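Structure ticket #2291
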Amino acid sequence: MISSPHTPSAKSRPPKAPAAPPALPFDVAVLSLASPGVQNLSAADAVVAAREANDTLADIVAGRPDRFQAFAAIPTAAPEVATAELERAVAQLGFPGAMLYGRTGDKLADAPESDDLHAAAARLGVPLHFHPQTPVKPVLDAYYSGFDDGVGMARSTGMGLATAGLGWYFDLGIQYLRMIFSGVFDRHPELQVIAGHWGEVVLFYLDHTGIMAHNTKLERPLADYFTQNFWVCGSGTVSERYMRWTSEVVGTERMMYSTDYPCTFGTRPGGFPFLDTANGVARSFLEQAPFSHEEKAAIGSGNWEKLTGRVTANRARRLPGTTRLIAPGTSVETTPAPTVASDATSWR
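Resolution: structure written out below.
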């Protein structure tokens, strides 16, 4: 989280890459800011914070290019600057894409103000990875309030349900559909989006929602947008059912590995097993998947390298028969200014 970009500059403190503990659940982390990035800031603050964050991330990547890549932070509250910052991050800093967080204020991802940014990403040939953020207050009040927890909304059952429990995925999944139905991908057919959490609910309803393609005069069947414009990650949810379903809908050639390390790393409340990637689970989950070795290698790293045109420096050292894991969307939490803590427990 970034609370203010007006604290002492990150440039006054040498950035340090997060300490790498043993047995990480991935080989390469693609770093980004934690939700909501800079999208909850004013336009002026977002511009400053995004630029400082990107410069700091670039310094980290430069120190360990074999271990780290980074997604750019984008000041979407200032649309005329957002495109320029994406171009700077790609052309000057060498970033493979950007991380966005759905809406900016009350503007959703398909708002006309974002069209130049979408066009720039398509022109530059870099993906936009979207991460959910907390639903707006009227939605929180209508659907997630009223639980008698006695702990306040911020820590309540309702807030848990509104965020990582379920609400995040509805909030962003609806925005994906809005982008399609409002013509974003028809205007920019080369635009590529990375969707986490096994597609943010939407993939599970395409056989039903697809009826709207004709009514909204889409240029393609609804499912085609997901097989041609979307790439899907599991975001640390180790569910074989979700993985199989995703492979049926978009194909293994559109799937990529990712994890929420360390947010749920080693955590099994009540023995719940589906979010814990510790003790080798992240790697064994993919290696035991019902896919060919070539498909597993593509999910683990090959599809990312194909999408971004990047082959990491130590790829050649991979042992035969092993699966290399690149994790897009590993988040860096920076507070109060865009700095990166050296404590590995502060990033994911």
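Closing remark: Confidence is low (pLDDT under 50) at residues 1-14, 312-322, 333-348.
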